Amino acid sequence: MKILSWFLVFFGICGLVGVRMLEDRIFYDPFLNYFHEADQLLAFPGFEWGKLVASHLFRFVLNLIFSCIIIHFMFRNKEWTIQGAVLISIIFVITFPIYLYCISDQFEIGYLFSFYMRRFVIQPIILLLIIPLFYYRKQILLKNITQD
């Protein structure tokens, strides 16, 4: 059973990597090249609000699914998986409107600020905090069990 769990964790990681590798083919994001070039003097790209928002929401859902697979099969705890999904969703709900404001302001608020807001929207960065948090939590619970 443990081998299957680690295989599914690996599947979740491959899913996140696949989302990242195929981002230019499966998502509508005219800002990929804009930020990839890292040149603030490039012309602000034209875009369609509806397609952009829908694409980011679709990407969020894919990242959330693969992140939940990783969390669930690493810790085999349904409650923690739900907590991880809620934490990831909270970060998205906070950062997505900020990023959309940055776009509407044509990144006048700041190029780097907009760049990092975009990172929180399109990448599951919070997963890098959740995994150590839950690992520490698991160790504390195991320590308390052995002390009783």
Briefly characterize the structure.
The protein has 148 residues and is an all-alpha fold. The protein has helices at 2-21, 23-26, 31-37, 49-75, 78-104, 111-122, 127-147.
How would you characterize the overall build of this protein?
With 148 residues, the chain is mainly α. It has seven helices and no strands. It has helices at residues 2-21, 23-26, 31-37, 49-75, 78-104, 111-122, 127-147. Helix 4 (49-75) runs antiparallel to helix 5 and helix 5 packs antiparallel against helix 6. The relative contact order is 0.12.
> What string gives the helices and strands in order?
HHHHHHH
Number of strands: 0
> Roughly how many Å is the radius of gyration?
18 Å
Low-confidence stretches: none
Output the structural class: mainly alpha
Helix content: over 70%
Mean pLDDT: 94
Shape: elongated
Fraction in beta strands: under 5%
Largest sheet: none
Number of helices: 7
Instruction: Give the N-terminus to C-terminus distance in angstroms.
Output: 28 Å
Produce the secondary structure layout:
Elements: H1 2-21, H2 23-26, H3 31-37, H4 49-75, H5 78-104, H6 111-122, H7 127-147
Helix pairs in contact: 1-4, 4-5, 5-6
List keywords for this structure.
single chain; 148 residues; mainly alpha; 80% helix; 0% strand
